[in-house]
Write a structure and sequence with these properties.
The chain is mainly β and 120 residues long. Helices cover 0% and strands 57% of the residues. It is built from no helices and 11 strands. Strand 7 and strand 8 form a beta hairpin. The chain starts with a strand and ends with a strand.
């Protein structure tokens, strides 16, 4: 059974940085991504990365967030810089498909979620 285990997250002031990580077990390499969901809103795409390292970002995070793979390619990171209060949400990693410059989650595979709170 495929499992996605997230770590990271927490609370930070506006302008600060956080990093999330997500590891897939058993070891395998997939297209992967991050979505987020805040109260009362639908889950939305944040970023995705293909097995070849191609990336896609939501317009709201371009230039601030970076998705990358670790040396162990079953791990994906989301480096979040210049955080804003509107970035506050639960962040979920996923397995999916990278195609034509975008990322589509396979809704059967989600991490447990990591709370990110940006507040002064």
């Amino acid at each position: 059974q495929v499992r996605l285990v997230e770590s990271g997250g927490g609370s930070v002031q506006p302008g600060g940085s956080l990093r999330l990580s997500c590891a897939v077990s058993p070891f395998s390499v997939y297209d992967m991504g991050w979505h987020r969901q805040s109260p009362g809103k639908q889950r939305e795409l944040v970023a995705g990365i293909s097995t070849e390292g191609n990336t896609a970002y939501a317009d709201s995070v371009k230039g601030r967030f970076i998705i990358s793979r670790g040396k162990s390619e079953n791990t994906v990171y989301l480096q979040m810089n210049s955080l804003k209060p509107e970035d506050t949400a639960v962040y979920y990693c996923s397995i999916g498909t990278y195609a034509e410059g975008s990322y589509y989650a396979n809704h059967a595979y989600w991490g447990q979620g990591a709370q990110v709170t940006v507040s002064s």
